[in-house]
Amino acid sequence: QVVLEAYPNPFGARMQIRMGVPRPGPVRLTLYDVLGREVLCLYEGEQAAGWHNQAWDVSQLASGLYLLVLEGEGFRTTKTMVKVR
Length: 85
Fold this sequence. Notes:
Radius of gyration: 12 Å
Oligomer: single chain
Number of strands: 7
Strand content: over 45%
Largest sheet: 4 strands, antiparallel
Strand order of the largest sheet: 4-3-6-7
Helix content: under 10%
Mean pLDDT: 94
Distance between the termini: 33 Å
Low-confidence stretches: none
Number of helices: 0
């Protein structure tokens, strides 16, 4: 099962992401604005199956609503995020 958790939400300068990848292979973790434009690719590459945790500095992002998308072979999940200053 694919799991995508991001916290805190709303977030400020840093975002912590926990993702559960069901099988090994290429994955892409991307942040989009509400118009569907790619804002930031947080990760793209091979990932082992299982749980993965990572923190990112997102202080350069403007305040607003974002969509965090985790994609891989045969799966895609989305999480809505709010950036505050």
